[in-house]
Each structure stands twice: as C-alpha cells, then as structure tokens.
Write a structure and sequence with these properties.
Length: about 550
C-alpha cells in the first residue's frame, strides 16, 4: 500500500516496526528487533533528501507562479494560465509575486478524490439536514463560493512526551503518548479546529509528490515558521490527549505541556475545499468528503472558581449539621443557632483551604464549536462517489504514565477516587465522630436504651468541626495529590505499589516519654482519664 511511505522499518529484517510506548522504541513484529528514536529520524531524513533532489530536477517542467495576498498575507500557487481574482481566505484581490521555489513543496501528497460539484452537493446536504442551525441558513446562499486547495500540512509520527497535572493541584506527572500519522496545518490564516473537524484522511491514498498533481490547482504556501510550527505540534498533541488526561486526573481543569521533538515529520499537501464568508466558515475533505462547519458564535467553558468551591462546601456542611442536630432531638431554633456558630468557623477554614487552588478561573476555555457530518466518508467506485463501508478513525495510542519507583522510571497507572478510598475516608470520619459512642456500646453490650449521647457532648464539640476539615483536606484536596499507584508489567497487568513504611523511632520515643515525664504527662493522663469518664457516662447514663 502507498502508506508504506510513513512506516519505520526494522534495521535487521526490513519489516515494518511499531512504536512501543513503554520501552520508547520501535519494535519489529517479525523478528523482534528494536529501532530507537534517533535511527527512525535518520531513516526519514534520508528519504526526504532523495525526494528533494527529485523535485529540484522536475520543477522546470511546470510553469507555476506564487501569489501573495495584500490583505491577509496568504500565499497561493496557481498555474500560469489560471486567472487570478480574489483571495479565497479574506476576499481581497491577489497580486502575482514570483516563480515558485521547489523548496516550498512537500515530499508527499494525497490527491483530490472529490470533485468541486460533489463537494458543493455534500455541503448542501449538510445544510439541509441541519436547517435549524443559523450556520446552515447562512451557508446555503454562498455555497457557490466553495473552492478547492491543496493545503500545506506536516505529517507527524512519533512519541509525545508530556508533563501533566491538575490546575488545582501541586503534583506534576510524566506521561507518554504516540502520534500515529497526525496532520498539523501549516497555514496561519485558517481555522485549525475547523480543518481538524474534517479529518481523518485515508493514508492509503498518500503518494510521493510530483508537480503534475498541482498543475492547474490552487496550492497554498506554508506561512508559519519552524518555531511557530513546533508550538502548533505541541498544542495539537495536547488537544489530542486532553480527554484521556481529564478522565485520568478526574477534572476538566488540567495543565498539559507536550514535547514532540522526537517525532518524525514530513511535509504533505492535503486536498481541501474551503469557504470563508464573514463569520461563516466551512471545509470539505477533498479526499473523503467529510464536512466540517464552524459555529458563528463563540462558546465558553466555565470552570468552578476556588471561592465558589468554598461556599458550596460550607453550605453542604451547614445542611449536614442542621440535619444531624434535628435527628438527635435538638430544638430547631437551638439547632439553627449551633449550626450558625459552626458555619462562621467553617467558612474561614474552607476559604483558607481552597485559596491554594486560585489558579482555577472562570473562563479558561473558549472557542467556536465545530459541526461535522460525523463518521460518514466516501470513496470513488466506477467513477461514482459512494459511502465507505468502514469508518476512518484517528489512531491515537492510549497514554501511559511514568514515575520514578525505587530509582527506576517505571510505567504506572494512577487511580484517585476509587470505591475503596471513598469508603475508607467515610469509615474514618464516622468512627472518629462517634468513637466514644462505639466504645460505650461495646461496654454496655449494645444496650441502646441505656446509651446517653449527652455524655459525649465534649467529644462532639471537638469532632463536629474537626471531621469536616479532615474530609476536605484529605478527602478532596490531597486525595488528588496522593493517588494510588499501580505498576504495569510487560503483559499490561497492574499491581498496586505500596511505599515501604519508614518508622520514625524519634517520634515513637517522644510519644512514650510523654506518658512519663512532667508536665506533658499530666495533660496526657488527664485526657485519657477524661475520655474514659466520657465513655462510662455515655454507656451507662
């Protein structure tokens, strides 16, 4: 198949090698040989050098010109006898500038598989099926302005090194992924998300570039430098893996920093039909016919700010306290008074606690929604455009987290709010809240009739404000900074990793001495005796 262009080959037997995220090498499925990242980059550099010499020798056979838009700065390539009128990206008139330099041309291309009339028909079908959307109403009168272009992309294949973390947390995790032939747009004037919406392309149609493919066609010249392109690679990789990272870290508010410098890059031309009319933008995949339309109005995603979290936590605490006081027979008026006193204390605690998460803002994500024709794509069969039986999907490898375990970098799985952890926290809170009551029940043989909750009033005064603070601190905030870690072996199985318990003998020695040496021992024994009296009064009234 033609997509062998993008394969990495085994140095021992020449068979295709696939990337293994855990070992960070390309592994041959035939002989087991391994190809490191540097060797894979060298293989594609040699291929690109050969293809560049081929283009240099053939460029003289074609009369191609480059034009530069005086309005938006877009550069487009046209055949010599093609009329030049208006820029399709901003509507301004174009001015022919200079002969085409072959260094601007890529090594590979996916030819057009959908005609302009078919593309207009597909876009019209989308408008009719989505007639209630304002974008469909505005697109229908201007569909005739749809034009075809070969747009410059960079095809990226290789490992993605990421550092990720929660916006409201302090811990940063190492994460590895793999971009399997992802396309990154190299045009600064075009909407990147709109173009992403019409992907993927069928890589079986990828072929070596020749100027015969673009003779008589509009070709846009790449207009972003290597530094900006590297930044776009990182953004694209981050957007690709954002859903996985959010699911793993259990929040929408995540920070992702990507490095794709180890990936193989290859410039390609991709066929696209594009229309831009004021606020309406649409694109049709020139190979598969998939439609992508940008929403006219910008949408925003609002994250929950830190102070609102504190308010919600306080209101929840107030409701629980008032319900508990009422349940134990306290007068509603007295219960409201006691709840109000606790709420005044608790709001100060929650504001101080959540102030560590001030990086959470109201609107940190905004943009235009992208509407598509979903998974339906087309191919040409006996001269007719027919629907594909199979669904083209982006091949994105599941990310793997890594951590330094006992001096070695090991692949791990992270788990935060598991059922076991939640039940453990609830159990600790419950036992702490009713600790003297539980002991009293064991002493009186579970005689609930003789149980006197008033005997533990002092304990409740201490536990009621303390337990919710523990729940917030360890059950909500630190829970996401102290995940359970599972080691992943070569077969993909997970095993819980537990750090070795280091017993601090100095702490134990200090605790033992507190029972013996005054004046601390007086306070310790007074506390123990008071607790025993409290338990007795609770057990026997």
């Amino acid at each position: 198949m033609e997509n062998k262009i993008v394969e990495i080959h085994c140095l021992q037997c020449g068979a295709p090698a696939t990337f293994d995220i855990i070992s960070q090498k390309y592994v041959c499925g035939y002989c087991g040989g391994k190809v490191d990242i540097l060797a894979s980059l060298k293989e594609k550099q040699d291929f690109r050098l050969i293809q560049r010499h081929k283009l240099d020798s053939s460029v003289g056979n074609y009369s191609l010109f480059s034009t530069s838009c005086s309005g938006c700065g877009a550069e487009l390539v046209f055949e010599e006898n093609e009329a030049l009128t208006n820029c399709a990206f901003c509507g301004r008139r174009l001015v022919r500038s200079e002969y085409l330099d072959s260094s601007n041309m890529p090594e590979c291309v996916i030819p057009f598989g959908v005609t302009i009339d078919e593309a207009k028909s597909l876009l019209k079908d989308w408008c009719e099926k989505n007639h209630a959307k304002p974008e469909a109403k505005d697109l229908l009168p201007v569909i005739h302005e749809l034009k075809g272009f070969y747009l410059p992309y960079e095809m990226v294949r290789g490992p993605v090194h990421m550092k990720v973390g929660r916006m409201d947390g302090m811990r940063v995790y190492e994460c590895e992924g793999f971009m399997d032939n992802e396309f990154v747009n190299r045009s600064s004037q075009l909407d990147n998300l709109l173009l992403d919406g019409m992907e993927p392309f069928d890589l079986n149609g990828l072929t070596l570039f020749d100027f015969s493919y673009v003779a008589g066609q509009r070709v846009k010249i790449p207009d972003i430098d290597d530094q900006a392109l590297a930044g776009r690679f990182s953004v694209e990789a981050g957007e690709t893996y954002t859903p996985w990272i959010r699911k793993t870290l259990e929040t929408q508010a995540v920070n992702i920093s990507c490095d794709v410098s180890s990936a193989v890059r290859m410039p390609v031309l991709l066929p696209v039909y594009y229309i831009s009319h004021y606020d309406v933008m649409a694109a049709v995949n020139g190979q598969t016919g998939k439609v992508s339309v940008r929403a006219e109005k910008e949408s925003r995603y609002y994250f929950l700010p830190w102070w609102l979290k504190a308010m919600i936590a306080t209101l929840t605490f107030i409701a629980i306290c008032f319900f508990s006081f009422t349940l134990f027979g306290l007068d509603p008026h007295d219960g409201m008074l006691a709840t109000g006193m606790l709420a005044a204390y608790f709001i100060i605690v929650t504001l101080c606690l959540y102030s560590d998460t001030v990086k959470n803002k109201f609107s940190i994500e905004h943009g235009h929604e992208i509407f598509t024709s979903h998974e339906k794509t087309f191919h040409r069969e006996r001269g007719r455009l027919v629907v594909n039986d199979h669904i083209l999907e982006r091949r994105v490898a599941k990310p793997v987290f890594f951590s330094d375990i006992e001096g070695m970098k090991r692949p791990i799985a992270l788990k935060f709010t598991t059922f076991q952890r939640v039940m453990k926290i609830i159990l600790i809170c419950t036992v702490t809240m009713f600790f003297p009551v539980i002991i009293a029940l064991f002493i009186n043989g579970f005689d609930f009739a003789r149980l006197n909750l008033g005997g533990s009033a002092v304990w409740f005064c201490i536990a009621v404000p303390t337990v919710p603070i523990y729940l917030l601190k360890f059950g909500i905030v630190e829970l996401h900074d102290q995940p359970w870690i599972y080691l992943i072996d070569g077969k993909g199985k997970e095993k819980r990793y537990r750090e070795k318990l280091n017993i601090d003998m100095d702490v134990i020695k200090t605790l033992l001495l507190s029972f013996v040496f005054p004046p601390i021992c007086f306070a310790v024994w007074f506390g123990i005796i008071s607790f025993c009296v409290m338990v007795y009064l609770t057990a026997f009234g």
